[in-house]
Amino acid sequence: MKNKKDPQPPGWTVTLSIGMGVGWLIFLLIWLAFFAGDYGIYQNIAIILISVLLVFIILGGSWASWGLKQIPVEGKEVMRVAGFTSRIVVSIVVPFILFIFWIIWFFFYAEDFNIYQNIAIFLVSLLALGGVLGGIWASWGMKNKKKLEEIGKLCEDD
User: Could you tell me how far CA 75 lies from the centroid of its own chain?
Assistant: First the structure.
């Protein structure tokens, strides 16, 4: 079933996105030009990650509020399937925690390790994230396969 709601995002979200993008680039340029020299490379990476996280939180919240209003009927049906909402929460919280881990790692601990070890830490943690999220969604999808197929058939009939 097609979504009957207005697909155009409100102007404030677009304006906020453009403003945040330009503001983040200005911050990055000012940081790198005037302040980065006071910190090590890994601490600068952590500070940039903090700024990226803040942009994601602000823009994610603003776009999510609009996106939730745009959910079509079949999407609302999927949201009613047991365990879906908790998996959405985990899919938001776990990457957020990983990002915090990366910030702490790079700011406080990365200097004690070489570049290859730091890349390994980054990649292993990213793979762990994929494993955790893949595991929770795959198990839910297999458990609810019939329900999801029924929802799909109902939507095809509309």
Answer: 19
- Using CA atoms, how far apart are residues 100 and 129, in angstroms rounded to an integer? 13
Cβ–Cβ < 8 Å for 67, 5: no
Task: Name the DSSP letter for residue 36.
Answer: G
- Distance, in Å, from the CA atom of 142 to the CA atom of 97, rounded to the nearest integer, reads 27
Q: Estimate to the nearest angstrom the gap between the alpha carbon of 110 and the chain centroid.
A: 24
Rounded to the nearest 5°, which phi and psi values hold at 117?
-65, -40
Confidence of residue 7 (pLDDT cuts 50, 70, 90): confident
CA atoms 56, 59, 62, 66: torsion sign = negative
**Cβ 15 vs Cβ 58: under 8 Å:** no
Measured distance CA(39)–CA(57) in Å, rounded? 25
Contact in structure between 63 and 9 (CB atoms under 8 Å): yes
pLDDT in tens, 116-130: 999 999 999 999 999
Number of C-alpha atoms within 13 angstroms, CB side, residue 131?
A: 6
Entry field: residues in the chain:
158
Instruction: Please report the pLDDT score of residue 40 as a whole number.
Output: 97
